[in-house]
Amino acid sequence: MLRSMKEMQGYTIRATDGDIGRVYGFYFDDLKWIIRYLVVDTGTWLPGRLVLLSPAALGRADRESFVLPISLSKRQVENSPPIEADQPISRQMESELHRYYGWHPYWSGTAVGLAVHAKEPEAPEATEGWSDPHLRSSREVIGYHIQASDGEIGHVEDFIADDEAWVMRYIVIDTHNWLPGKKVLIVPAWAEEINWVEKKVHIDLKRETIRECPEFDPSQPVNREYETRFYDYYGRPKYW
Asked: Is the pTM of this model over 0.90?
């Protein structure tokens, strides 16, 4: 199902034996636009601590109760390798996390496994200390300006993700400074460049093309009917 990532921020994370906190944000690969981790704020349970979870541990989100179940116990999460808030996620940190939970590393070329049996982490190799430059925080990118081929059109308001494949399908753009009251979608793969210094996303579309595109209503789910109209308008291949 396609879901708003901003809406999911705040969902309760429910372990097999109780709640552990709430969704704080996501880390995604800005080349493949795949969600690699969910960031959990453990709140009063483990005050001041954030933890990372792979999609391998996530169940199906319940939109009515705002709960996202995980196939881990509270003790497994409590004993997991810590992360530092607002710091890049190093490959050493990722390696420790994947070894601890028994997940298959996505950077090894194999599919992310579903194993969630926690074990003691092995000592990381010295060569694993570098950070993946393509691992980005969703909280950081929300607010970035969108630059069309002939001018600015708005800013990143949200992302729409597939919560089964954990792929980011759309970027939600708020055009209020250009087209008051209108929100539109673009496909992340259409981004030509993301300038992290200027906080801008460059896309290969003209302003007039975007002006006439199907409007996005955040109060309505993104269904296949809307997606078909969207892709037909742009004349681009559908992902399904």
From this structure: no
